[in-house]
User: Fold Desulfoferrodoxin from bioreactor metagenome.
Amino acid sequence: MTCCGQHMTELVPGSVDASHEKHVPVIKVEGDKAIVHIGSVDHPMLAEHYIEWVYLQSEDGGQRKCLQPGGAPEAVFALGGAKVVAAYAYCNLHGLWKANA
Assistant:
């Protein structure tokens, strides 16, 4: 597959040898919102190593939130009554990670 004349590489979740406890998203549903925390142990949020974005897939579609160095490794999403399917997190050093709901 190409985009803008460049060959694209498929991102495969969890395919990099890195600590799972700091990269796999943890999904918590509270009422009509989903809180996605990155890692069972906090992921670093340093300029040189951080979670760039979090994507929440629900039965109604998806939402993405961008994170910044120095912030919390967490994102909150409004569900609007939809059921959560999965959450993805992208680490600038260790790639894409996924957790199924």
Strands lie at 2-3, 6-7, 25-30, 33-38, 51-58, 61-66, 74-78, 84-91, 95-100. Residues 2-100 form a domain with the Immunoglobulin-like fold (CATH 2.60.40.730).
